[in-house]
Amino acid sequence: MSVATEAVSTTSHVVQYCSDLIRMDTTVGRRPEREAAEYVAARLAEANLEPLLLEGSPGRTNVVARVPGREQDLPPLLIHCHLDVVPADPTGWSVHPFSGEVADGYVWGRGAVDMKDMVAMTLDVVTGMHAAGRAPRRDLVLAFVADEEDGGGHGAGWLIEHHPELFADCEVAIGEVGGFSVPTPRGFLYLLETAQKGAFTLELTARGLAGHGSMLNDRNAVQALARTVTAIADHPFPLRLTDTTRDFLDQLGEAFDLDDASGDPDEALAAVGAVGRIVGATLRHTATPVVLRAGGAPNVVPSDAHAQIDCRSVPGYEDEFLAALRGLIPPEVHWNVIPRGQGHENGPDAALTETIAASLLAEDPTARLVPFCMSSATDARHFSRLGIRCFGFVPLRLPHDSDFVSMFHGVDERVAIDSLAFGTRVLDRFLSAY
Prior knowledge:
This protein is of the alpha+beta class. The protein has helices spanning 14-23, 34-46, 116-131, 156-162, 221-233, 243-255, 265-270, 275-280, 318-328, 350-363, 380-383, 404-407, 417-433, and strands spanning 52-55, 61-67, 77-82, 102-103, 106-108, 140-145, 172-175, 181-184, 187-196, 198-207, 211-212, 286-294, 300-301, 304-313, 333-341, 344-345, 368-374, 389-392, 414-416. A six-stranded mixed β-sheet has the order 1-2-6-3-7-18, covered by helices on one side. Strands 8, 9, 16 and 17 form a four-stranded mixed β-sheet that branches. A four-stranded antiparallel β-sheet has the order 12-14-10-15. α1 crosses α3, α2 (34-46) runs parallel beside α3 and α10 packs across α13. The longest helix has 17 residues, at 417-433. The chain is globular.
């Protein structure tokens, strides 16, 4: 690898911030976020802010700060970023996942796109504004949180339960996932996350007659469970287009000259490559088996068997999804639902979208902002419980050959230096004008 020489603004520290943060191992469940939180707090203090360090448990540190805006009559904007990352096995990586190496035009390492890039961009904009004697248009509430990758019980979820007053006057929030570019024949689409699927775990328990594996048994718990899991996993849930997904498909069709993208979403999604995997998963309910437990000996039929199904519901169709699942579970299989986050779908927000679109156009004249629904859950599931309208916006113009989707939780996670510089400029423009 060669050391990168791409230039960013001489006043920008975004690459340094991103690299520094990646070197701080904040693997969820293994390493606490305290070091990264203290680093963030120190940068905010340099901008004459007074960050609060709040812990749901020792070392699981959250940072919250308020940046004064020019117009105090406007409600503040919440910007939330998580400091934790998923585990990374160095095997197969081109660099060590916690090296934060800067090479070949990229910053490399776990968290580069999920989501220490946004932490770095936010810090760079806030500290840069302070150094230049500028301020955002409205107050900003910054929340750099722990534990997003494991549900947020020590992070956003804990904050809204124990310190909701910090966010009481916020009406709109931005966080992950969205803002990244998708190439089309007519320029770049930039995806704004305006909706998320709901998430819950479906627990199944089959109970039967224990016995010897060599004997006939018409009450085999493993068989009952296996049939149920297979029925759920193979069930063809119907297409459900929300306002968000229909709008996305229509704009995608226009960008790729497709006649009926909403009528044939598979063709439309194939046009955008890997991004289609994310959006495609939002067009229907999904129920994915993830855990199976039964027995312990090769010749013993166990008395019970257990499974967990990862369920994701299309916003607005949750009751339909549960009814369909209930119809697939026979009486001999007991079931239980563990909620993991309510889905949501935001209606149009002209002030937000127009300001984001203008900020993108100032840096990319081909930019076109399109809404999309996220297939997985983020900390928006927690902040939306306070009535905050949550959007996903982490602005990145990606290299044409970037497989951005595979960067999330993948090997050789990295973010382009040019993308960081672009995102910092767009974010600065947006916060100055919104």
